[in-house]
Specification:
It contains 12 helices and 16 strands. The chain is of the alpha/beta class. The protein has 2 domains: about 260 residues, Rossmann fold; about 150 residues, Glycogen Phosphorylase B (Rossmann fold). The strands form 3 sheets. Strands 1-4-3-2-7-8-9-10 form an 8-stranded mixed β-sheet, sandwiched between helices. A 6-stranded parallel β-sheet has the order 13-12-11-14-15-16, sandwiched between helices. A two-stranded antiparallel sheet has the order 5-6. The longest helix has 19 residues. The radius of gyration is 23 Å and the shape is globular.
Length: about 450
């Protein structure tokens, strides 16, 4: 019923002395959550025997890095209206959820991990609580693992914001031991987009931004070619930008001499892809591809980048030093618009609001971006390595079960100076013993 991704990498051998780590990720519309989880799992595999539960389909052409096992759950995705749909041929959405609950708990009990990492929930993925709460309940069974949430820099806004934040805080306090925020706190802090009535009582630890382990990221001016690269992440929300870029390309070529390389993305709709193929046919200077192995080499050689402002894409854009024009995607909660606003304030990008997106405005902004200086990018992007160190320190701070005299079976942190919150640049909060969820405790591995 479960399936590892065949032929990509070997499973961890039996007898591997490394402690187990179970990582849950659900990507629903785009692939940003998936790619960040890949980068984290790759880094974590240096210390842990990592098993990634993947809740969405991995697009053809996207290959996970080596070093960890991928378990493909029966896939669930989101439509453009953010409603859920099952992509499992064996059943409808309700039946798919039932199978997934069984499989997730089964994988947990088979691995008996020292650490459980849940991506985004409970700060998002409310619709998946039906499968995640059973996992978190199972994690209370002895021997208890360390349970942490992996969270991106900015949370989305919601119509029921107060209710959502309160629910998230209560679940986090009840089931989790720590929260890893994959951001530089100088740029984004959790409290800016999260306002529960009941405060979090678990450590909030900033890791820095998580990026792929690419070499030779920075491009030299001598290496850059007269090309503008247009990319839209997964492509699921890329129709408007791709269409405008294709129509703007003749003017861009005429006024700047730049050709265009357009990367449509693995999730671009087939009808959109077909229209783009027709537009590109016979159009001088327009190169259309659906997918590239890595965006970084494309950006290193480009004179200008035009893209949305998702977490992964914008970090690759900024790290390569290419002049960047941002058109935030239309999304639930507008976190892309907020990220773009902050980056523009730092002088790192130009922003074309999506309400103003049309071929002429896009061509004008490309010319402006091409001729403008860019600010210095100095945000912390060492989040993958820092996440490994933080988890190791959190594990080391767990006292043996015999020494934990907390009423209700919760955990007690020792008074060691090895406080991971300081290494992560957080306020250095410690979790009070009374805030831990009821548990029978966990033995040291």
């Amino acid at each position: 019923m479960t399936a590892a991704i065949d032929g990509l990498f070997a499973e961890s051998p039996e007898g591997d002395p490394h402690p187990g780590l179970l990582f849950y990720c659900q990507h629903s519309l785009g692939i940003g959550h998936l790619m960040r989880s890949f980068a984290l799992c790759q880094a974590l595999s240096a210390r842990y025997r990592v098993r990634l539960l993947c809740g969405g389909r991995i697009p053809q052409g996207i290959v996970p890095p080596g070093g960890f096992e991928v378990i493909a759950l029966p896939p669930i995705a989101a439509n453009l209206d953010f409603s859920l749909v099952s992509h499992d041929a064996a059943g409808d959405l309700e039946q798919t959820f039932e199978r997934r609950v069984e499989l997730i708990v089964e994988q947990f009990r088979a691995l008996r991990p020292a650490v459980v990492v849940v991506e985004l929930f409970p700060f998002g993925r409310k619709k998946f609580s039906r499968e995640l709460l059973p996992l978190l309940e199972a994690a209370r069974e002895p021997p208890r693992p360390l349970v942490v949430c992996s969270l991106r820099d900015l949370l989305v806004g919601r119509a029921d914001q107060q209710e959502h934040d309160e629910r998230a805080s209560r679940i986090a306090n009840a089931y989790f031991d720590a929260l890893l925020v994959h951001a530089d706190p100088r740029f984004a802090r959790l409290e800016e987009t999260f306002h529960p009535r009941s405060p979090l009582r678990i450590p909030v630890l900033y890791t820095g931004y998580v990026v792929r382990a690419d070499a030779d990221v920075i491009g030299c001016s001598e290496d850059r070619r007269p090309v503008v690269v247009v990319s839209v992440g997964s492509g699921a929300q890329g129709e408007a930008l791709l269409t405008a870029a294709a129509r703007a390309q003749p003017e861009i070529l005429e006024t700047t001499g730049l050709t265009m390389r357009m990367i449509a993305g693995p999730h671009v709709r087939e009808d959109v892809w077909e229209r783009l193929l027709v537009a590109a046919t016979g159009q001088p200077g327009l190169d259309l591809v659906r997918l590239v192995p890595s965006l970084v080499p494309e950006l290193r050689r480009a004179r200008v980048s035009v893209s949305h402002c998702g977490y992964n894409t914008i970090l690759e854009v900024l790290r390569t030093g290419v002049p960047a024009l941002i058109v935030p995607a239309i999304e639930e909660g507008d976190q892309e618009r907020e990220r773009a606003r902050r980056l523009e304030k730092l002088g790192l990008v130009h922003v074309l609001p999506r309400e103003r997106l049309d071929p002429q405005s896009l061509a004008t902004e490309v010319r402006a971006t091409l001729g403008s200086p860019r600010g210095v990018f100095n945000l912390d992007v060492d989040g993958a390595r820092a996440s490994v160190e933080i988890l190791a320190k959190l594990e080391a701070m767990l006292t043996p079960a015999a020494d934990r005299g907390v009423i209700g079976g919760g955990r007690r942190r020792d008074s060691s100076s090895q406080d991971p919150t300081h290494a992560a640049g957080s306020p250095g909060r410690r979790r009070p013993p009374s805030s831990a969820p009821a548990s029978s405790g966990r033995t040291r591995r």
